[in-house]
Amino acid sequence: MKIKTLRNFAYSLAAVAASATSTLAADVTMNLGFGAPEASIYGRFAVHFENFVEEFSNGDIDVKLRCCNQIATEDEAFKAMQLGTVDGFFITANNVSPHWPLMDVTVLPYIFQNTEHLDRVLNGEVGAFMKDKLQQDTSVHLLAFGPALYRDFYNSVRPVNTMADMKGLKIRVPKNEVMIATFEAFGANPVPLAWSETPTALQTGTVDGGDNGTSFIRDMKFYEFEPHLVILEHFVAFAPLFASDHFMKRLSDEHRDIIHRAAAAASDELSAEVATETQEIRNWLATEGGMAMTVPDKADFVAAAKGVQDEFAKTRGADFVDLVKLIQAAAE
Fold it and tell me: pLDDT by residue (tens digit) across 107-138?
């Protein structure tokens, strides 16, 4: 009888342990959102991250991908992470600025001299400083910057060969002060719109055009109603991966390390994939996509952008100026 009782007790302990392990694994679930389709660069980043997390954790952490504004829009997601109601989200850098104004340093037109300069900033000491500073100021964790791409300009009215051709064009811009000021300096009429409103506004002609990362123009099929593609390379577009402090504090030290390692690995993997894609997609847009592509001389645009940089350096304070200087020093 005693042996049977001990055996039953052992079975009970095993069942409890298995149940606890199952419950623990089920509790480590990350709902990860983004506003774009699954096939977009956001979706690709998300899939890489999901795969690395589940590989590194042996399936103990379950990442559930929520595309297409299922759990929040880009304009809502940062605040939701601060409140702890969203675990993680990919947010275009310029849409972070209303919540953390220092991010606008990366939005300044022509602030990065080339892709090597950009890589040194985001993946070096300056990028590490920005991650730490953002978390201190907002509580939100910036896990990885992700691949950086130029934003290409497009419109439905006319080709743009000089800055004078921008005059009067109604251009959708995110609700970002730097981007609004930049298109004003270029001579256009910027119209601030949330991303969720943008596709309809473009398709109905409420606005004449806009700008996005090159792959987004194809992913969103904007080429179907925006016939003019203009290569300005005025803004760099990247979509960092963020996580809420509420989610990160739910994790063990080991699981937090896995989340960070998976984010870095996913960022590196996708960056390698997209390294050669920009020109390929531009060529596709100008051939199969049917867009007429122009490559204006950038001298007037760069001069106008310098004025925007100076304007914001004067008004944003010492922290902003210091970060600009750190980015400029990284070019040397």
Answer: 999 999 888 899 899 999 999 999 999 999 99
Q: What is the pLDDT of residues 173-205, one digit of tens each?
A: 999 999 999 999 999 999 999 998 999 999 999
Instruction: Scan for tokens 């750190």, then name that residue.
Output: 326
The whole model's pTM is what?
0.85
How far, in Å, CA of 152 to CA of 223, rounded? 12
Residue 254, SS3 per DSSP: helix
Residue 156's Cα: distance from chain center in Å? 26
List the Cα angle 53/62/145 in 5-degree steps: 45
Q: Contact, 133 vs 239, CB < 8 A? A: no
Task: Return all residues near 15 (Cβ < 8 A) that are at least 6 apart.
Answer: none
Domain spanning 28-148+238-276: which CATH class is it, in words?
Answer: alpha beta
The domain defined by 150-236+278-329 carries CATH number 1.20.1090.10 = no
Dist. CA 214–CA 238, nearest whole Å: 11
Could you tell me the residue ranges of all domains in the chain?
Answer: 28-148+238-276, 150-236+278-329
